[in-house]
Amino acid sequence: MGIEVENIKPLVGARVYARPEELADPAVARRCLELLEQRTVLIFPRINMTNEQQLAFTDALGERVNFTYTSKASDIEAQDVYTVTLDPKLNPDPEGVHGTFFWHMDGVNSPIDQPKASLLSCRTTAPKGGQTEFASTYASYEALSDEDKAELEGLVVRHRTCAIYRQLVEFPTAEDNERWNSMPAYDHLLVKTQPSGRRSLIIGLSADSIVGMPVLEGRALLARLNDWSAQSEFVYRHHWEVGDLAVWDNCGALHRVIPYARDSGRKMNRTSVAGTAPNLATAA
Ligand SMILES: [Fe+2]
Asked: pLDDT tens for residues 68-104?
């Protein structure tokens, strides 16, 4: 198997050198899945995959899923490829992309099982901003004290759309609040355990409260966990070059983009691998 791997930081990130056609090989894909859980984010520098090759790699990693299927930015170029851009000509709903400026996990606030992995390839870079930061919540969870870990045991975190919009909209109207509050909530164990036994925190922008805990106390805990996970030893910032591919373990990778201008031309194509562990039941 011809792939080469080099770690980026001690606790997070690896660069993987491979040819696009190798990655659809089941044995190579299995190796990448192992690496993904160990390193949280894999970078394939300037691999220059086509949409078809990216979808073939996605399929080799698991079952393809499209949780943004209702967005007009899906399927513009290829089925199940979502274009991440602020360019209104390419994404008729660019406002939704502003949520990516904040630490988040993909698809955690939707009715599907939390996606296992996301794949993002760079088609055009921004002249300023546009770097993506990844924070490993595997590493941040493992670095907690035993006492802190014991406090988190069994807690359920509730993810809600209204938590996202609270950050994005400065002066919401009564109608805005009513609409956001009517959207369903999704419950997850705050600490998710993989079949390997490795554990991670399911937090980020959409995390709104801890079930059974006073709202303020729950939000204060979530803010502390976000801050803890964003420490530099757990974080890798990727400076994109055209043709780079990043794959992250979406159950253990908070990620965010450094803001970039709407007319920057930045364009990324994302595909996603379905989760295999069910979320807790939809809350409301
Ligand atoms: Fe994302």
From this structure: 655 555 555 567 888 888 888 877 777 778 899 999 9
Tokens encoding 101: 């400026």
Task: Quote the CA–CA distance of 240 and 9 in Å, as a whole number.
Answer: 17
The rounded Å distance from CA 117 to ligand 1 centre is 10
Three-state SS for 125? coil
In the reported structure, the alpha carbon of residue 1 is separated from the centroid of ligand 1 by a whole-number distance in angstroms of 30
Residue 93 alpha carbon to ligand 1 centre in Å: 15
- Residues 62 and 41: their CA atoms lie apart, in Å, by 17
State in Å: Cα 110 to ligand 1 middle.
Answer: 13
pLDDT at residue 281 greater than cutoff 60 = no
27, 1 in Cβ contact below 8 A? yes
Average pLDDT over residues 131-152: 98
Distance in Å, CA 256 to ligand 1 centroid: 7
